[in-house]
Amino acid sequence: xxxxxxxxxxxxxxxxxxxxxxxxxxxxxxxxxxxxxxxxxxxxxxxxxxxxxxxxxxxxxxxxxxxxxxxxxxxxxxxxxxxxxxxxxxxxxxxxxxxxxxxxxxxxxxxxxxxxxxxxxxxxxxxxxxxxxxxxxxxxxxxxxxxxxxxxxxxxxxxxxxxxxxxxxxxxxxxxxxxxxxxxxxxxxxxxxxxxxxxxxxxxxxxxxxxxxxxxxxxxxxxxxxxxxxxxxxxxxxxxxxxxxxxxxxxxxxxxxxxxxxxxxxxxxxxxxxxxxxxxxxxxxxxxxxxxxxxxxxxxxxxxxxxxxxxxxxxxxxxxxxxxxxxxxxxxxxxxxxxxxxxxxxxxxxxxxxxxxxxxxxxxxxxxxxxxxxxxxxxxxxxxxxxxxxxxxxxxxxxxxxxxxxxxxxxxxxxxxxxxxxxxxxxxxxxxxxxxxxxxxxxxxxxxxxxxxxxxxxxxxxxxxxxxxxxxxxxxxxxxxxxxxxxxxxxxxxxxxxxxxxxxxxxxxxxxxxxxxxxxxxxxxxxxxxxxxxxxxxxxxxxxxxxxxxxxxxxxxxxxxxxxxxxxxxxxxxxxxxxxxxxxxxxxxxxxxxxxxxxxxxxxxxxxxxxxxxxxxxxxxxxxxxxxxxxxxxxxxxxxxxxxxxxxxxxxxxxxxxxxxxxxxxxxxxxxxxxxxxxxxxxxxxxxxxxxxxxxxxxxxxxxxxxxxxxxxxxxxxxxxxxxxxxxxxxxxxxxxxxxxxxxxxxxxxxxxxxxxxxxxxxxx
Length: 765
Ligand code: ADP
Ligand code: ZN
Fold this sequence. Notes:
Blueprint: H1 2-7, E1 23-28, E2 37-40, E3 54-59, E4 64-75, E5 94-95, H2 104-116, H3 121-128, H4 131-134, E6 139-147, H5 151-154, H6 162-172, H7 180-187, H8 192-200, E7 203-211, H9 230-245, E8 249-255, H10 261-274, E9 278-282, H11 290-297, E10 303-306, H12 312-323, E11 329-332, E12 344-350, H13 367-377, E13 381-386, H14 391-399, E14 403-407, E15 418-423, H15 428-434, H16 439-450, E16 454-458, E17 467-469, E18 487-489, E19 494-496, E20 503-505, E21 519-521, H17 525-535, E22 541-544, H18 554-564, E23 569-572, E24 585-590, H19 604-616, E25 627-632, H20 638-644, H21 648-661, E26 669-677, H22 680-701, E27 706-718, E28 721-730, H23 735-744, E29 753-759
Parallel strand pairs: 8-13, 8-14, 9-11, 9-12, 10-11, 12-13, 15-25, 16-23, 16-24, 22-23, 24-25
Antiparallel strand pairs: 1-2, 1-4, 3-4, 3-5, 6-7, 17-21, 18-19, 19-20, 26-28, 26-29, 27-28
Helix pairs in contact: 2-3, 2-13, 6-7, 9-10, 19-20, 20-21, 22-23
């Protein structure tokens, strides 16, 4: 830190030998203190220190050895020269990477993320570069040998033993790289004589890092292109114009479920690949199914699929392959937006509304906005696809910032499925008698199975009972570390917190009044599974939620079973709502459409609408058609009503005025500050302090940023920490950031209290 204060000291003339002859490197660290700090570059490192390499430098009074990223090399004539005090810099000790780990375009992107999401640059760079790349996973330092200079010409005149001669002859007659062991094996000797020749200077050696194993990219049987319909053709034409002209444009491809969006992406990517460029396709993690991979691998030779089950070494290998330009298409979740493509031509974000595109730890970036910035910076088109776009994207499209491409019809003129609601208020008596499946839904399931169709049942709550309550004193069993009711799981007879995974044995009596007649109520997927199994004893059922899909590969296996028709009823959480394309699904049942409708979150309606519309879209994809039944306590709600009509535009028209009234996104901008501590009073004290400083900064800067709170967060306690939050809102972009940056310098930390800033928050709980 004493280094940073040096920046501000004007250099005295006698401190500089030669005013213009200096070279400094600006360094950031991935942990506190983050920097940046400037160091001088010793002459011997001048040619190898570049932005994007890691260096070792001494830090602070104790000269602690630290590893940091070089983000800039600055000389006397650099535009940043004035910000450097070249007279008093400590020198860089050593350099860790022979080549930059991150290219200039990604480094620019890192700068933007750091500024926009208020996250230290070093931490952002650390997020961009996979850990396996940073610590050389899957590679090994190896020694290679070759004949010393001139040895080949003197082979006949040198005085050598027969074995030595044979070793050198073998080595000289091959252009291949040898390791000492390979050469010894080939000649049929030990490594001893080879070492002797190395000592004599007749064999030269060098070492370098090599990949221990390659991870071949699997290929699929190629399939031919489909003939696009006119809507698909028109959409492709618009995107292609910008690919040909090399210009940036962000498209919203708004297409109903099953309208053939993916086919359009593939054709656009083909164009990009023909130009020798690369494309990135981002999908929600749960959509990285074999079906998705196969679709891309069947159309392109070199597709890298970056999913969460890759080992660090595999991920590092893919990263190197991508950086080397050996990959045409990268398909992956959120972080694939950081793929180091040398010549990016297109980015696609499928299911762009999906919440998983926002990272929930620092840097709290949204892949959609990162993609937008990257596409702009690299002058390429970005395609955002969805049947239920986020209102942020929709609003930008309405304003003309984005260009809308509409696919209004399903492919092959298949109709959208008919959606009907079942009013649970009317049927509530029935619910009590028959459980979670209303009589109507039961009849429809029976019918669908009889006609040899398949059924999908959605319930967005896992576990067996979502509430464990004492009927006598009313006490609800909650997690000791979080203010969250525990969920009863019958497998393992336990009660589990869905936030922190805290588990206790299934309670036998109330923990407050010790009453033994404790009640398990509220419906989770486990209970639904046993109810359905009891109702349809001869029908093969499968449950799909994070509890049953923990093992790598289980998701794939489950979907394969469903595809083959072995499983007739697939039930589960939102995992089953997205992207699946199974023509034989003739019925979708939504067990309770209201699970998310009443959460204290301004996006509750949008999420409910999206979920119901998405799951409804899983049916009617074959000749047999399809039908959807939605059980709800709120059949009149705008979200539910619009979902039954597959009417996104109607939903948006009903929802947007409310957002506008409260200046919520997409009209205003939001940031959320969360303060947490194990000690309630300290959290509260810090929340008040931060709020005061923010208010003062907001007033001083006068940018129209308003502050709401602080108040206790809806989830008051999480993982043992009490939580307070406040919301900052403004009508202008980037203004909240200015206020927070201004306040940050004044906020004094309190021991045992953490606080985080979440720009454009998705999680309001
Ligand atoms: P979306 O992503 O919009 O839900 P998909 O791209 O998954 O839709 O397409 C749904 C189904 O229609 C897929 O099985 C796909 O192969 C098929 N399909 C797409 N375009 C065409 C087309 N032009 N002709 C025939 N079938 C098509
Ligand atoms: Zn908990």
